[in-house]
Structures are given as C-alpha cells and as structure tokens.
Amino acid sequence: MKRTRRVKDLSAEELRRLLVEKRRADRQARLAYFRKTGRVVELVSDLDSPLLDLSQSTVLDNVEDNRERRSTWSGFRRILDGLLLLVEIGAIIGLVVILLNGLDILDRLNQEAIIALEQPTLTPTPLIIAIVLPSGHTSPDTPGGARPNEAEIPQHLQPLVQSLANIPIPTPGPEQAVRIQIPAIHVDAPVVQGDGWEQLKKGVGQHIGTFNPGESGNIVLSAHNDIFGEIFRDLDKLQPGDIITLFTSQRTYTYVITSSKIVEPTQVEVMAPTTPATLTLVSCYPYRVDDMRIAIIARLYSGN
Hints:
It contains three helices and eight strands, in the order αααββββββββ. A hairpin with a 6-residue loop joins strand 7 (278-285) and strand 8 (292-303). It is α+β, with helices and mostly antiparallel strands and 304 residues long.
C-alpha cells in the first residue's frame, strides 16, 4: 500500500511540479470547454509537455484571462450597441411625432387665419331707423283735416325726424316692387319708393332701406286707410292664409298672411329685419281715428 506523503515532507521541486500539474489540469479543462464552444484553437504544440514550467503556465493563464475579458467586453458591447440602437429608434420616433405635431399646429394656425380673414355675411338693415311707424296722420274729421301727425313723435326726437324728411329716394331698379295686389280686399295699387307724406299720395310706399321682394328679410309697405284713395282701409279684414302678390319689373312674388296685430305708433319693432322673406303692411287704425297702427305679417310663398 502506497503511503500518503504530507505537504511538509515534499521538497520544493516536488511542490513546484504538483502546482504545475494542477495548473495544467485546470487549463486543460478550460481549453476543453473553449474547444467545445468553438472559442479557442490550440496555438502551441507542447501544451501537454511535462517540461512546461510555471512561468509558461502563468503566461497561458494570462492569455486565457485576456480572452475571457475580451469575451465579456464583447458581450457588454453588444448590450451597449442594442441600447444605443433603441435610443436612436426612440429619437427617430420622437422626431416623427414632433414633425406630425408641428404639421397639426401649422394646420390649425392656417385654419384660424382663414377664419380670421373670413368676413361675416352682412345682413342688410334699414338705412333709416324709424322713430314711429309710417303713414301716421291726423284724422280727416279733425279741425284742419288730415296732416302729418307730429304729436305722436316724442318731442325730443322731432328734430331728428325733421332732418330725415328730405332723404333722397333710391334710383328705381329692376328688383324693386312696382305693384301690389291683395285680392281678398280688392287692392291693386302702385308701389313707390319712400313712405313720406308726398310719396303716399301716389300709392303704397316702401320704407327706404327695407328689402326687395323675394329677398330674405323684411319688406315694409305702408298706405293710408282714410285719405289718398284709402288703399289700406280694409287691412283689418285680412285673415291668415290670404294672398298678397308683389310685382317687380321682371318677376312676381306671392306672400301668404300669417298674422296681424294692432300696435302703438312707436312700436317700430314690427319693421325689424327678419331671417325669412317677410312682408309687413302698415297703416293707421282705426278708421278715421288713426291713433294706432295695424300691421299685417306675411311670409314668402313663391316667386317666378
């Protein structure tokens, strides 16, 4: 039986050789693993030489350690490259988002600029703001007979009404009303521009600045009920559904009566502009008293 020797019984040469063999065995195990994974090729032919000394073994160990470090660094580099690639992809995506957002902001700015540049559709309004409803006059039965009734105009506004008395009459155009017919009360009369005292002597007057027949808005016509032909004497006999026909030099428009009302001379809101095409007839009321007004409201039915 072979006797086991203790370490303190070994000579320095024997200890050195055991250390070399230990290192060789460890190295061979690592090389075998590297060969198996294809990471190492033998570069020297005397790796198994029993004469390999400790210094040679140390050099080989350093080489293998360097290879392991390079392998570790290579793995780290791959991870770092992957992270940098992700950062680049994120940066590109962020840039695309910024560009798209910039385009959206630019589009909104353009839309806002277009809206700011758009002018609202202007709705024609009467050129003259009425103080009282037209056709007002004193009754022909009063002393002095029929004349413009200045008493119904608020005293502080009388100078304004007098200053508006000489408003120029618009030049006749093809779209202006020239005739009115109301079959239910046998009215067939000319239409003139303006509703002052002199104009209403000639027929039915259109308030200056109101809309033309067929237009989306309110055309206001007035006439007397007990003087100058008593054209609008029977307005109070009209009923909803009755027909009013307006003629221009080119077309004919039919309106259908929808309502009527008795109002104070100062209730000028019946002359206000409207969205639908509207016709408003105004005259003094009641007959030969003339301290109120009757207003007939009609809506456009057809035009040809």
